[in-house]
Amino acid sequence: MHYDPLSSSIEYVKGVGPKRAELLKKEVHITSFNDLMMYYPFRYADRSKIFTIKEISPSMPYVQLKGRIVAMQELGHKRSTRLVALLEDATGTVELVWFKGLKWIREKLAVGKIFIVYGKPSLFSGKINIPHPELETPESYEQLLGTTLQPFYSTTEKLRNIGLDSKGIAKIMRNLLASIKGNIPETLPSWLIKRYNIPRREEAIMNIHFPQDEQQLGLARKRLKFEELFYVQLGLLLAKHDRYKKSKGHIFSTVGDRFHHFYSQNLPFALTDAQKRVIKEIRSDLGKGTQMNRLLQGDVGSGKTLVALLTMLIANDNNFQVALMVPTEILASQHYKTIVALLNNIPVETRLLTGSTKAAKRKSLLQELEQGDINILIGTHALIEESVIFKNLGLVIIDEQHRFGVAQRAKMWGKSSVPPHILVMTATPIPRTLAMTLYGDLDVSVIDEMPPGRKPVKTFHLTDSKRLRLFAFMREQIALGRQIYVVYPLIEESEKLELKDLMDGYESLSRAFPLPDYAISIVHGRMKAEQKAYEMQRFIKNETQIMVSTTVIEVGVDIPNASVMVIENAERFGLSQLHQLRGRVGRGADQAYCVLMSGDKITHEGRKRLSIMVQSNNGFDIAEEDLAIRGPGDLQGTQQSGLLEFRIADIVRDEKIMVFARGIAEEIVQFDPELKDDKNVVIKRQMDELKKSRHEWIRIS
Ligand code: ADP
Ligand code: MG
């Protein structure tokens, strides 16, 4: 084993020592030379530009001034003293203010001395001041100019107390870099570096900390971002390759009677080209002899259910059982009914299993299942339970997969000795960069076309004071024979307060739409399953005109006559969720509407988000906007993934670099999937390194 200087303890960097090492470890998880080396600055200050005091305004981010201290004063009482100093240059004066660390400032500052001051101008009682500026004497400033771009490192209160503020970190960073110079290993192969003229790693590391100029910094950043994205993509693609190689899968060699019968006689309408293409992709997977692992993405209403059913029939034709798992009971029973109706006279034994299936029925159902008498089992999380045993499970389909946790999904795969084929479906449109990472090891099919004849939903934003207008509009629509959803945000089904919102809303609607002219259904998560089903049925049968509900109807529900969706407190939903809800309407031939209700006072950002909904009907555009506004951490279904934690790359802004990195990773997997080639030893070594340090790459399936 060769000695790797970068794995040395941080303690041995000049200027660190045991005490600082301890705190660096505790506060920012830096333990080795390597950790510190990769602790990149979050910002840089251009210290070459000096403003005059007259020029500055509170809207400026950071400014640098040069002047003389002409007055100093301590104000306030014992506990809340502050130190104010007046800085003067040829154009005027400005106040510098400190609330903390006064002792140190007192020692450093003196009336008459000249300082170079760096900080953020802010407005205080109508006057500009600069709180907690950095101070340099003309001598120390000279030294700073060695780098025009001064790095800023994030730090903590405790680190600051032992001298490791940003400047202190920069100091030990300099010491570290001086000691490891010449020993920073290259992590990209030389052919790649040459082909694309990529800066070497050592150069990039030096320049990310202490760049000479913007151009150098830009190149260093790009190189380090590329490296980070490249290894994530390569890891995902190698995992996928591995799966192909290793995993045996059932071969569904025939497309038999049931499929043909259904296709030629039971299809209620012609498939869209996108649906046909996806079925072809799936059929090819099923015949290969390796396990299918496919994600089906398609906007709400694009017709994923039918694709699922056709896939299930292929499995049945090959004498395999199928499980279809969905996140809610409402959706499970809807799918069950739709599928039974579509199958009509085709001999496919289909059953429904949910948490509220009665014990006796459940018992006989489980028996039938184990004997192989059931062909399709549709249900909720109830399918995961150990008592649910299949005779020969060949295919698992998961609808609205983002609603399930990774562990829940994985349990389904365990229900067959040979892993079943897997199709996960989602309507959550995920921007390309994110999909590439989150679903990087899956095959992806996309339904990018809506069934013909759909009119785009018209969306409006109304504030609470326009409620009477909303009611008038609802009456109009009901008079035309339409039905209406009114949805309240109940993110956590257990939150009492919000349930109150829903009940209040229900009452005021009951007054505005009284019996016997109108009837209203209500559904929420606290109701018993039978009660929910009863209320749903009344709405489905058009016995009620309005359905008041929480987001339990968010996914999957398909009632074509319901053509108006009213969303209360719309500003409290994420954009993707609003889009899902809106997808409940516009499924029939009638013009559909979505009304977003919000408070009269709404933040600028809230208004902007709702206006995106008003303007766009395209799930992908909306997801892009959502990502840009909220960042990837908040996107539905992405929370649990460690894949989105990058040191330097930014999944929103660095799409170009990511696409480029993925392209190269694809090339490598195609020509040297074992990483055996001499020219790829560096890659092999780095992959092994990463495997050690990174927690298991989380798979979506
Ligand atoms: P989602 O993709 O959101 O699950 P669904 O499968 O629920 O969408 O389909 C939405 C609606 O579109 C359903 O009423 C379904 O019957 C209808 N549909 C599906 N495919 C077609 C098609 N090719 N032509 C016309 N209507 C279709
Ligand atoms: Mg669906």
Architecture blueprint of SSEs:
Blueprint (H helix, E strand, L loop, with lengths): L16 H12 L4 H5 L5 E4 L16 E13 L6 E8 L2 E7 L3 H7 L5 E6 L2 E3 L2 E5 L2 E3 L1 H7 L4 E4 L4 H5 L4 H15 L9 H7 L4 H9 L4 H33 L10 H10 L6 H14 L6 E6 L5 H14 L3 E5 L3 H15 L6 E4 L5 H13 L4 E4 L13 E6 L7 H8 L7 E6 L5 H7 L4 E5 L10 E6 L3 H13 L3 E5 L8 H17 L7 E4 L5 H12 L5 E4 L12 E6 L7 H8 L10 E6 L5 H12 L3 H12 L24 H17 L9 H13 L8
Parallel strand pairs: 4-7, 10-15, 10-16, 11-13, 11-14, 12-13, 14-15, 17-22, 18-20, 18-21, 19-20, 21-22
Antiparallel strand pairs: 1-9, 2-3, 2-5, 3-4, 5-8, 6-7
The protein binds adenosine-5'-diphosphate and magnesium ion.
What does this structure look like?
The chain is an alpha/beta fold and 701 residues long. It is 41% helix and 17% strand. It contains 24 helices and 22 strands. The protein has a seven-stranded mixed beta sheet. It has a seven-stranded parallel beta sheet with strand order 12-13-11-14-15-10-16, with helices on both faces. The protein is globular and about 95 Å long. The two termini are 37 Å apart. The model is unreliable at 636-641 and 695-701 (pLDDT under 50). Bound molecules: adenosine-5'-diphosphate and magnesium ion. Adenosine-5'-diphosphate binds at residues 269, 271-272, 275, 298, 300-306, 427, 451, 558, 560, 587.
